[in-house]
């Protein structure tokens, strides 16, 4: 019945699509920021001053680790972008274009991809032979500038990334009006969208005790097939490698709104350490989003540098570290949030001494379900994780 | 209630996991093939003959276009692989190993990834310093050999690929025992698994009139957001670029079992043509699977080489053809299933004359929802597609 009503409503909307969509508070706020940006140009012109924008600097030098909040945040440096400056005029124009594109999307209540935004804005500048954007990398960079300038998530500009990441477990949520029981989603699970703000995704009820986040979908499949989530009463997620914003944001919301601890099962290599670091402390490039993304209490469940010996893994499954691995491992050991932690120093040091890395998949050499039936249950029972 | 029973059952199974899983007919058949393969070695040994395997040749020379079936199929050439041949002994051993790995997976009723299979089988050969497989590319190739030798899909060997591709629309299916209403799956849709055989996925009911398959998830999102599937009563799918086997197999099953026509919205470039070609006629590398994958009646809905003019697209959205594009376009024009088709010759010829390609996303330059509200509805209404 509810469905029929919903369908009828959708069809009715389809019949007269020209009605202006109702905007929610978040949309109004973002729109307000964009309009303020544009008003700045008018004000400057009226005052006969050169219009400019102050774009917060997205650089390592403008990022710091906040020890009390325990995540990376941006400093206060800005780069001034002026219209009447030959080297800045184009990027000034591009910034305004991206803001106007976002305005159009929000007003029509539609979203698009980064590529869609590029095509939406790309045109030959009137009276010139120049293009607004030569390729997508140009508009992608400007989009990040607009995000930090407006202090708005990309998703709030109505831009989405590719869906990546899945979830399964004893939780019922509502996504775009559809009630979704994540314990009954078949073998593929719930596909985590890139926009998971409360306007789109609401948590309805759950009985989970924790979240197990694994690195790759192939490992996640093993956990799904073995019904790990059912036996251990948890939510299982993966992020398809480095988790995209949608996955990070959903984990953040589940952690803070539903009080669920987050355990991460990642590869024993610099990439796995880095994924953990980003989930926990935020990333340098998205430092302005840490407060909505970082989960400082997330735990690293494995794999560990001691596992080759502890689990008596065959030497055949070792993968030799290459020069990049060694360099990255040393960098990560020096991250401010790892440098004072003895267990992490020991962990990384041991990997360097081992001279090899280990993937979670390598545990299959101990048995197809070793990872779900022995490795992870043992780590959880012994509270044996890194923090 | 049904859910509680299912959960209780699953928990009960978890309590005593050592019971031998019941195998279905398909699993028994695959297992029979593997055992036959192994028996061949024993028989040869008893007859004091050299054991060998005949592996169907996976090469362009052993592939032909079957004009009456209208898809690519494999010829009868085989490569003999002998145990007592220095250059073939290792691959013989590897083939037997992969077969035994598949046997283990089937018997335990578990699946794994290609990488999982690699780790499952990788070890130092007893009494030697040699590894069974040096890297995953070796086991991946042998897995394809075993597939053709046993005439079994990779999925029947209990191996899966990464999930890619989503579906939304007025269809209810059952996936691994979970009933899934694909019209109520939120913004992410139903994540198409890599194994969609009837034992895993059953179609329950649907009211769809056709399937619209789009190339990329970002385009698919536009169609979902505009509720195209609701307005046009269709199933919407995407394959994340070149669709993986799970997506192809699901489209095939929906087309043949549910009588749904398949329309493909792909980029106006050699890659888009190629994706269509594979969906329609099968691929050279997976020619042995054409009968379960190819959809000779699939239609190419666009984008078309005439669209730049017909839709009055801005020259800014053109992407110049590079040398590889030109070469690929000429190759595709010469495919046996395209060479006699005037509309296709005209289409490809026009693209070469244009000197540029067009992505579906470029239609956004005509309006955010131009593709869903004008382009595709017009093509469908006019039955304006290529065959």
Oligomer: homodimer
Q: What structural class do the secondary elements of chain A suggest?
A: alpha/beta
Strand composition percent of chain A: 15-25%
Can you tell me the CATH class of the largest domain in chain A? Alpha Beta
Q: For the residues shown, what is the average pLDDT of chain A?
A: 91
**Second CATH tier, the architecture of the largest domain in chain A:** 3-Layer(aba) Sandwich
User: What's the end-to-end separation of chain A, in Å?
Assistant: 49 Å
Spatial sequence of strands, sheet with the most strands of chain A: 10-7-13-12-14-15
Number of domains of chain A: 2
Largest interface comes to: A-B, 69 and 68 residues
Largest sheet of chain A: 6 strands, mixed
Secondary structure elements and their pairing?
The structure is a homodimer of 387-residue chains.
Chain A: H1 2-15, H2 25-46, E1 52-56, E2 63-66, E3 71-74, E4 78-82, H3 89-108, E5 112-113, H4 114-121, H5 136-150, E6 159-160, E7 166-168, E8 171-175, E9 178-181, E10 190-191, E11 201-206, E12 210-214, H6 217-225, H7 228-232, E13 234-238, H8 245-258, E14 262-265, H9 270-281, H10 290-293, E15 299-302, H11 307-310, E16 319-320, H12 323-333, H13 336-339, H14 342-354, E17 356-357, H15 370-381
Helix pairs in contact in A: 2-3, 3-5, 4-5, 9-12, 12-14
């Amino acid at each position: 019945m509810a469905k029929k009503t919903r369908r009828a409503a959708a069809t009715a909307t389809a019949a007269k699509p020209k009605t202006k969509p109702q905007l929610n508070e978040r949309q109004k706020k973002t729109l307000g920021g964009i309009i303020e940006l544009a008003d700045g140009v008018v004000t400057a012109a009226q005052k006969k001053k050169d219009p400019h924008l102050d774009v917060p600097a997205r650089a390592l030098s403008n990022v710091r680790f906040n020890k009390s909040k325990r995540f990376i945040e941006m400093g206060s440096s800005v780069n001034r972008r002026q219209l009447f400056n030959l080297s800045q005029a184009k990027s000034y124009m591009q910034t305004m274009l991206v803001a106007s594109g976002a305005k159009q999307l929000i007003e029509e209540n539609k979203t698009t991809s980064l590529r869609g935004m590029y095509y939406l804005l790309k045109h030959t500048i009137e009276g010139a032979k120049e293009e607004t954007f030569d390729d997508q990398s140009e508009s992608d960079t400007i989009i990040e500038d607009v995000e930090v300038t407006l202090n708005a998530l990309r998703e709030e500009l109505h831009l989405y990334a590719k869906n990546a990441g899945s979830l399964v477990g004893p939780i019922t949520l509502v996504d775009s009006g559809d009630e979704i029981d994540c314990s009954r989603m078949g073998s593929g699970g719930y596909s985590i969208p890139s926009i998971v703000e409360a306007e789109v995704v609401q948590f309805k009820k759950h009985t989970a005790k924790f979240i197990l986040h694994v690195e790759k979908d192939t490992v996640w499949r093993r956990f799904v097939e073995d019904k790990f989530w059912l036996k251990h009463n948890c939510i299982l997620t993966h992020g398809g490698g480095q988790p995209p914003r949608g996955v990070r944001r959903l984990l953040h919301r589940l952690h803070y709104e539903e009080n669920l601890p987050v355990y991460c099962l990642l590869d024993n290599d610099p990439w796995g350490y880095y994924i953990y670091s980003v989930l926990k402390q935020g990333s340098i490039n998205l430092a302005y989003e840490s407060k909505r993304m970082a989960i400082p209490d997330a735990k690293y469940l494995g794999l560990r540098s001691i596992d080759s010996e502890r689990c008596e893994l065959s030497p055949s499954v070792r993968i030799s570290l290459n020069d990049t691995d060694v360099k990255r491992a040393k960098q990560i050991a020096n991250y401010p949030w790892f440098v004072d932690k003895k267990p992490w120093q020991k962990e990384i040091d041991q990997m360097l001494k081992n001279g090899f890395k280990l993937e979670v998949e390598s545990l299959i050499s101990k048995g197809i379900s070793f990872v779900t039936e022995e490795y992870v249950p043992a780590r959880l029972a012994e509270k044996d994780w890194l923090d």
